[in-house]
Write a structure and sequence with these properties.
The chain is of the alpha/beta class. The protein has 13 helices and 29 strands.
């Protein structure tokens, strides 16, 4: 049987995970001849953990997804440092910037997204960003920020979303004087209500981050600083742009594929051309929030099933996303209807329960419909975050004591009641421990019994903890529990 020629355009987190999933299903390359093209010169890396590299808690090598010899060891034709520049759908051929032409039977677009640059005078110059302006998106961006950051240097971060806050916390940890400029009235306004945003901003102020909320940047002068839309001037030796991203769709649009906010795909991740698929940030699926890793990795598993013929009925139905802020000293989780207010839910059977403790930098909100958890926002309540995420994933009735649930003192339905917080023994086997990789407690137990008897071994066998890092403590707890009970 002649292997199907599959070309993947993009060697970021989505493209690299798809390659892993294809190799896992077809280790000898009997069904798929895989070529992966990446425009960055590095091996694939975990973009989610760049904030930890910026903060200095992880090295660049520690966030790599593949070792340098990975492609050769698995028979993958990997081409880095180049990108696709033209696509001929009729000939089923794609041309690369280095002059090479690749023929395909199936093409996969994993081109990701690019930083959005606000239309502000002075931020851009011919050929790219102005001197002193850096986007926070790639490993090279991260290295430039580390090189530019110094104690006492004034830094302005444009954007108070996840990336902006992670960049701000990392730079503040390096001693820079950081000010976040955000046009909304509170930070992380897509995931949090105003009260939660206020507590989060106070928490970050404690770490040395200042804010200008409800303001936009009107201009930038290299070596001087930025002017805000109210006329205020802020000194800035460095400006970090983290104002959002846009799906990279130029190649798809030029080739005549259906494109809206992203490349439009169906549940089989097919574009308007049945021989071309798309996944990750560049793809637009109705059940997916853009800019997060979990949907991309779930899509990669589905697409690998289809490409290798492992499961021709596999379909992607969307992802219930949990957002975590990865910043030192901040424990924030938001899921589902995290912004809903009591007068907005429009359901007589809905409940919104809140604990607001700004003096101690804590906030917890729980949204329920017919006893099921449909949303939550938790800052400083890690035990509650773990329990509520389980309840949300399993869609089972929540315990009647809502306050105990918010405080992390109520166990999921069906668990043993021990009078304390949920322990690994209390979790059902079906509980999802690592959402990024859909790893259950049962999968971790199976891996342990198969010989993966360390945290590193469990991560290598199951991939738990290799995504956003939010499940690391839980994986460690399960490893400790298995060691003590064996």
């Amino acid at each position: 049987m002649t292997p199907r020629r599959v070309v993947v355009l993009g060697y970021g987190m989505a493209g690299a995970r798809l390659a892993d999933e294809v190799v896992r299903r077809d280790p000898d390359g009997e069904r798929v001849a895989l070529t992966v093209v990446g425009d960055e010169p590095h091996p694939a890396y975990n973009r989610v953990l760049l904030s930890s590299v910026l903060a200095g808690s992880l090295s660049a090598d520690a966030v790599r997804l593949h070792e340098p010899g990975w492609a050769a060891a698995h028979g993958v034709d990997l081409r880095v440092g180049t990108r696709a520049c033209r696509l001929d759908r009729r000939a089923r051929r794609v041309w690369l910037a280095d002059g090479a032409a690749l023929d395909y039977d199936t093409l996969v677009l994993a081109t990701g997204s690019t930083p959005w640059l606000p239309p502000v005078e002075g931020l851009a110059c011919p050929g790219g960003l102005a001197d002193g302006v850096v986007a926070f998106r790639t490993l090279d961006d991260c290295e430039r920020l580390v090189a530019a950051a110094r104690p006492g240097a004034p830094v302005v971060v444009v954007g108070g979303g996840l990336l902006g806050l992670e960049a701000a916390r990392g730079l503040a940890g390096r001693g820079s004087l950081v000010t976040v400029v955000h046009p909304a009235s509170h930070v992380l306004n897509r995931q949090l209500d105003a009260a939660a945003g206020g507590v989060l901003a106070a928490t970050l102020r404690d770490a040395g981050v200042e804010f200008r909320l409800g303001r936009g940047v009107a201009g930038y002068v290299p070596g001087d600083g930025v002017k805000l839309d109210d006329g205020t001037h802020l000194d800035a030796e460095l400006v970090v742009v983290a104002a959002g991203v846009r799906a990279e769709t130029a190649l798809a649009r030029d080739a005549g594929l259906a494109v809206e906010q992203g490349v439009v795909v169906d549940d089989a991740l097919r574009t308007s051309d049945g021989r071309i698929h798309a996944l990750g940030d560049c793809a637009q699926h109705p059940g997916t929030a853009s800019g997060l890793v979990q949907p991309a990795w779930e899509q990669a598993a589905v697409l690998a099933d289809l490409l290798t013929g492992t499961d021709v009925a596999a379909r992607y139905r969307g992802t219930a996303v949990v957002t975590r802020l990865k910043a030192r000293g901040v424990e924030l989780t938001a899921l589902g209807e995290s912004c809903s207010e009591p007068d907005e839910v429009g359901d007589p059977d809905a409940e919104v329960v809140r604990v607001h403790d700004p003096a101690r930098r804590r906030y917890a909100k729980l949204v329920l419909r017919r006893d099921r958890v449909t949303g939550a926002a938790l800052l400083g309540f890690p035990d509650a975050a773990a329990v509520l995420t389980q309840l949300h994933d399993r869609a089972v009735p929540a315990p009647a004591d809502r306050l105990a649930l918010l405080l992390g003192r109520a166990l999921p339905t069906g668990a043993r009641t021990t009078g304390g917080n949920a322990s690994p023994a209390d979790l059902p086997g079906s509980a999802i421990v690592c959402r990024c990789n859909s790893v259950t407690k049962a999968a971790l137990v199976t891996a342990w019994r198969s010989g993966a008897t360390t945290v590193d071994g469990l991560s290598a066998r199951t991939r738990a903890g290799t995504g956003c890092g939010g499940c690391t403590d839980t994986v460690c707890g399960i490893a400790d529990w298995l060691a003590s009970s064996s």
